[in-house]
Amino acid sequence: MAPPAPPPSRVFAELDLAPAAAPAGHVGPPALPGREVHVSGSAELSARPDRARVSLRLGSRKEAAVAARSSVVSRRLQYIAHSARLRGVPEENMTVTEDFSRVENTYQMEAEVCIVFSDFGKMQNVCNLLIEKLGTSITINPPHFYHTPEAIDTLRRQVCVTAVGNTRRKAQEVCRLFGQALGKPLLIKEEETKEWGGHIDSHLSHSADSQTLQERIQNATAYASCRVFAVFEIKGKENRRNKLL
C-alpha cells in the first residue's frame, strides 16, 4: 500500500524573542522566561513482520483404520514435530489438528500442522528439510507473515519518540540561527498519527501464491507516521564556546 500523501506545508517554527511582561510591582529588567520557540516535527518509521505462520497438510487413505492412522500420526506427524524441535521451535508454537473419516470402503486420515516462527531463517530450514524428506506426501502452504501486538506497540512508541527528537533538533537550529540557546520543553503535543500496511495476527492471508518470500515480507511490513507540536523555552544568548563545538 502506498504511503499517504504528505501533509500540507506548514510553518517550520515560530520564534518569540520578546521578553515576558514584568509582573505588577516588579522592579528591574523583565524576566527572560516567557520567550518561546514553537516548532512542529514529524517522523515516519517501518517495521518488518516479526512472526510467520506456516500450515502443513498431510493425509492417508487405507482400507484399515489402524493403517490410516499409523501412516499419518505415528510416522510423519512425529517426524515434523521432531524436526521443528531440533531447530529450536518451542512445543507451544506448534498446533496439530486431525480429521479421521470413512470414505467409501476406506479410512481417511488428514492432519494439519500449524507452526509459528519468530526466526524466518529457521522457518526456511524446516520447510526445506520437510519437502526433501517427505516429498509429495506433504503440502506446505506459503507462509503468512504478521505482527504481534507488542511489535505494533513498539513501532508506535518509536515513531513518536523520533518525531519528538526531530522537533527538538528543529528548535535548536532555529535558536542557533538567532544566536539563542534552547531551554527546557514547555509543551509537547502529539498532533497526528497514521498507520498503514502490515498484518496483525490473522489466520487469513490475502497474498497471492505466486509472490516470493521477500515480496510477502514487504507486503506485511507496517508503517507509522507521527507529527508533534512542541514549545521550548529560550534561555538566552548561545554560549560561544558551545557554538564552536
Automatic annotation (TrEMBL):
Q: Does the keyword Cytoplasm apply?
A: yes
Where in the cell does this protein reside?
A: Cytoplasm; Nucleus
Among Gene3D superfamilies, the record links this protein to: Protein of unknown function (DUF541), domain 1, Protein of unknown function (DUF541), domain 2
Entries under Pfam families matching the protein: SIMPL (PF04402)
Q: Which InterPro entries match?
A: IRAK1BP1 (IPR030312), SIMPL/DUF541 (IPR007497)
Record's Gene Ontology CC terms? cytoplasm; nucleus
Q: Does the keyword Cytoplasm apply?
A: yes
* Annotated keywords: Cytoplasm, Nucleus
- Using the UniProt record, give the first listed, main subcellular location: cytoplasm
Q: What is this protein called?
A: IKBP1 protein
* UniProt source species: Orthonyx spaldingii (Chowchilla)
